[in-house]
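Tip: read the tokens left to right.
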């Protein structure tokens, strides 16, 4: 929770600075946000020590910030992403995407921590999947940032596409983390989340009727073309691993015992 919460606070304050620069809020609102950020950090400290009340406070504050961002930038209106991104630049979109994702992840982890604040993962064999999922989610969010500039969400509006990207990235990471305690359910979440990554990337960027990676390179640069390819590749790898792993753990005990040792997961 601390690993997610601290970046959320930093991104909140960075975003607040840009909002004040655009004169969207008063100094009183800024003071409330700063006090809320300090309370958030205090809640993280108490939750780290095993306090259920601290986890509840973190969850409430994360939900409040997430709701504020979704209603401001992920919905149609004067502060929508599609209206501000062209004038504020790419870093505005980066901050908004990662702020929403970290708040959503922190909220989910805080909900779990309210029932088991001092819980520990029972299975460390899924750590490589967690690493791939975190990297893949980062690339997915960066690809979505580029999609905002190109309006590249297919039939979805910029705001709807951005929300789907944030929710999918969060579900991908949460599913991978969930495999440490509930393997089957975590793998199912990973499979569903990654299917919603690699299939749209294939449909939008690798099919003849889509926007090719070469076209992305022309409009956004080689880095973003590689990011799109990397997000799709990692999602496909995680999807295959999740499906195969789920099939193996679903076998009867006798059938699993007959497998080679490397496959007895």
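Filled-in amino acids:
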């Amino acid at each position: 929770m601390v690993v997610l919460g601290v970046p959320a606070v930093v991104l909140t304050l960075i975003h607040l600075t840009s909002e004040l620069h655009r004169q969207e809020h008063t100094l009183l609102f800024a003071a409330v946000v700063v006090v809320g950020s300090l309370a958030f950090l205090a809640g993280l400290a108490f939750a780290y020590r095993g306090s259920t009340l601290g986890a509840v406070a973190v969850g409430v504050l994360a939900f409040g910030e997430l709701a504020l961002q979704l209603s401001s930038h992920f919905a149609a209106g004067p502060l929508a992403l599609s209206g501000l991104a062209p004038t504020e630049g790419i870093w505005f979109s980066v901050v908004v995407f990662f702020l929403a994702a970290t708040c959503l992840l922190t909220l989910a982890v805080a909900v779990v921590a309210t029932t088991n604040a001092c819980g520990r993962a029972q299975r460390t064999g899924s750590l490589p999947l967690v690493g791939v999922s975190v990297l893949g989610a980062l690339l997915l969010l960066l690809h979505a940032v580029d999609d905002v500039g190109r309006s590249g969400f297919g039939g979805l509006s910029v705001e709807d596409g951005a929300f789907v990207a944030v929710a999918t990235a969060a579900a991908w990471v949460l599913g991978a983390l969930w495999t440490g305690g509930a393997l089957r359910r975590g793998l199912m979440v990973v499979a569903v989340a990654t299917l919603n990554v690699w299939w749209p990337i294939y449909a939008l960027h690798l099919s003849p009727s889509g926007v090719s990676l070469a076209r992305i390179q022309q409009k956004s640069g080689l880095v973003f073309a590689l990011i799109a390819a990397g997000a799709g590749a990692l999602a496909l790898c995680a999807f295959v691993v999740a499906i195969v792993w789920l099939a193996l753990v679903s076998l009867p005990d006798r059938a699993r015992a007959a497998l080679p040792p490397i496959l007895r997961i």
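The chain has a mean pLDDT of 88. Residues 123-265 form one domain.
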